[in-house]
Design goal:
It is a single chain. The chain is an alpha/beta fold and 185 residues long. The chain contains five helices and five strands. The chain has a three-stranded parallel beta sheet with strand order 1-4-5, with helices on one face. Strands 2-3 form a two-stranded antiparallel sheet. The longest helix has 30 residues. The protein is elongated. The two termini are 24 Å apart.
């Protein structure tokens, strides 16, 4: 959601969580938008034009989904919302299944924005999106390259979740951070 909407709604959640805790329950937040789900309700999404959108291997950019590696998105949105949730009195914060590398309204498994393309150097690929598929399908090296790519993507998700957890723990180490796994990361 937009930051202004998030702050407004967080005020309501704080009151509801306090009421639940007064009754003896633990209370927390399931945050739905870490990267974004699909291109829906676009009027309600935070727009940070400088941040990289999730990009398909064909170059098409999602409209409501952000790159898991983008430092601008992390600093200007994720750090703000997860930091605010950590101050809210929540016992736990649950990240939703939008932390995935497919089904963001684009083609491919993973983000292929300029930030991610640069990070692919870690597995030995230097080049553009158009050449990446051929590099992966090399008859002699392809199997090892595909394995390296899958590991790279696992590390991408782990790094994002580590960023979220560190953001929360810096504000309130007592908050438990959980993740909904959609089963295909």
């Amino acid at each position: 959601p937009r930051l202004e909407t998030f702050v407004r709604d967080l005020g309501i959640l704080k009151k509801r969580m306090a009421a639940m805790k007064a009754l003896g329950y633990e209370a927390g937040i399931n945050h739905l938008v870490t990267l974004g789900h699909v291109d829906e309700s676009l009027d309600n999404y935070e727009d940070i034009p400088e941040a990289q959108r999730f990009t398909g291997y064909d170059g098409r950019r999602a409209r409501a989904n952000y790159c898991p590696c983008d430092p601008i998105w992390r600093e200007r949105y994720l750090k703000t919302v997860y930091g605010a949730m950590a101050k809210s009195g929540a016992d736990f914060i649950w990240t939703d299944d939008d932390i995935r590398l497919q089904n963001h309204g684009i083609k491919g498994w993973g983000c292929f924005c300029p930030v991610c393309m640069k990070k692919l150097e870690k597995i030995g690929y230097v080049g553009d999106r158009e050449g990446f598929a051929a590099w992966l399908e090399d008859p002699e090296e392809g199997d090892g390259r595909r394995r390296a790519y899958l590991q790279f993507r696992r590390e991408t998700v782990a790094d994002l979740l580590g960023f979220v957890a560190e953001t929360v723990r810096t504000v309130n180490p007592a908050v438990v951070v959980g993740v909904m796994d959609c089963g295909n990361n």
